[in-house]
Write a structure and sequence with these properties.
Elements: H1 2-29, E1 31-37, E2 47-50, E3 65-72, E4 75-76, E5 87-95, E6 100-106, E7 116-119, E8 135-141, E9 147-148, E10 159-167, E11 188-189, E12 195-197, E13 200-205, E14 208-210, E15 216-218, E16 221-223, E17 227-228, E18 230-236, E19 239-240, E20 252-253, E21 255-259, E22 261-268, H2 278-283, E23 287-289, E24 294-301, E25 303-309, E26 314-317, E27 332-337, E28 340-342, E29 348-350, E30 353-359, E31 361-362
Parallel strand pairs: 1-5, 6-10
Antiparallel strand pairs: 1-2, 3-4, 3-5, 6-7, 8-9, 8-10, 11-31, 12-13, 13-30, 14-28, 15-16, 16-27, 17-27, 18-25, 19-20, 21-22, 22-24, 23-24, 26-27, 29-30
Length: about 375
């Protein structure tokens, strides 16, 4: 009797151990791992979650770049994304200097969809579709109710897209399996030479420049002749080697004195006899300066540099002949105006571009 109880107890223990092992194996198979590829950014540890569950996405940084979000293949994931198998999420980055715009998603009562940062002139990669109980998601639409689909090329400006839903009709009678018609994908096309931008076609042309009537273009600016420039003289002494009789002296800069006209006097004579008066100075062949009563080895007329000046807000142009034969005395003073930019007929000037915009064709 005692032996039978022992065998029964061992069997019960074995059954319990088998059950624990099976439970552990079942629970292990119900756990999946989410790994993160930060693509050069800060390191992120893996996260384990129950199959069919969601996670709070971690933050990540990278010098010189703006973090766009975590992506599974080409789709951006969010905190509401559910996972049913092991996956690797990859970080998407944009250089801080890149020109971007932001898309805000209004899910109209559906699940939350995070904002999307998109690089200008790049095709759009839409995030996962939202969900809403009792409704079927059709597409995202813009303010004109135009469907915006994946791979669209939108204008480089912030925009809000709203979810377009179709209510699911519940039938009282027994539901019969019906073949669903596939949602027709809308594609847009443009004529040759045009660039597709969302639902519009854009044709770019060169920006032209012209000047208003009564002005002329001079070296990229529009100018109007006002009056002749004022002539002013700026006199200066040059350098000179003076022969003092005892050999050549080093190059010296002359001193400028006004004596009715302008003269440059070069190097004072050191002899005290010659410095006593003009007669002693000139008798030995030197030059007397009556402005300061000193004797110098030589004098010359000062070099004259003619300059032309204008009032404030005017510029002097020395060669007005370039202005289609309009002449000024010694050049002229011209008020500078901004360049005038314009486009050919049919094009509009926008963001320093000449654009012709037409509606895209729906295929």
């Amino acid at each position: 009797m005692k032996k039978g109880k022992i065998i029964g107890g061992l069997c019960l223990l074995i059954i319990i151990l088998i059950a624990v092992c099976l439970l552990f194996i079942y629970q292990k198979n119900d756990i999946i791992t989410i790994q993160f590829n930060s693509d050069g950014g800060s390191r992120v540890e893996s996260i384990e979650v129950e199959k069919g569950g969601s996670i709070k996405l971690p933050n990540v940084t990278k010098d010189g770049y703006t973090f766009v979000g975590w992506y599974l293949d080409s789709k951006k994931v969010s905190n509401d994304t559910k996972y049913d198998k092991d996956v690797i999420l990859k970080a998407k980055w944009l250089e801080e200097s890149a020109k971007t715009y932001t898309i805000t998603f209004d899910s109209d009562g559906g699940s939350n969809v995070d904002d999307l940062i998109v690089e200008c002139d790049k095709e759009l990669s839409l995030p996962e579709n939202p969900t809403k109980e009792g409704y079927e998601f059709i597409s995202w639409i813009d303010k004109n109710e135009t469907p915006i689909l994946d791979k669209a090329l939108l204008a480089c400006e912030n925009v809000t897209l709203k979810a377009n839903w179709k209510k699911i009709e519940e039938k009282v009678e027994e539901k019969k399996e019906e073949k669903k018609e596939p949602v027709k994908e809308i594609k847009y096309s443009c004529p040759n030479g045009y660039k597709l931008n969302g639902t519009k076609c854009e044709l770019e042309d060169k920006v032209l420049e012209k000047c208003p009537d009564g002005t002329r273009e001079y070296e990229g600016n529009c100018v109007t002749i006002n009056y002749s420039a004022r002539k002013e003289a700026n006199r200066k002494c040059g350098s000179k080697i003076i022969n003092t009789g005892g050999g050549s002296t080093p190059t010296v800069e002359g001193e400028l004195f006004k004596m009715g006209t302008y003269y440059c006097y070069y190097k004072e004579v050191p002899d005290s006899y010659e410095q006593q008066n003009s007669s002693n100075c000139t008798s030995r062949g030197h030059k007397w300066n009556s402005s300061n009563n000193r004797c110098y080895y030589d004098k010359d007329e000062a070099n004259v540099n003619i300059i032309y000046s204008c009032d404030n807000n005017y510029v002097h142009i020395s060669d007005p002949n370039k202005l289609e034969g309009i002449n000024g005395l010694n050049g002229g003073c011209f008020p500078i105006k901004d360049k005038v930019k314009y486009c050919l007929e049919g094009f509009n000037l926008k963001d320093n571009k000449c654009l012709k915009i037409i509606d895209a064709t729906i295929n």
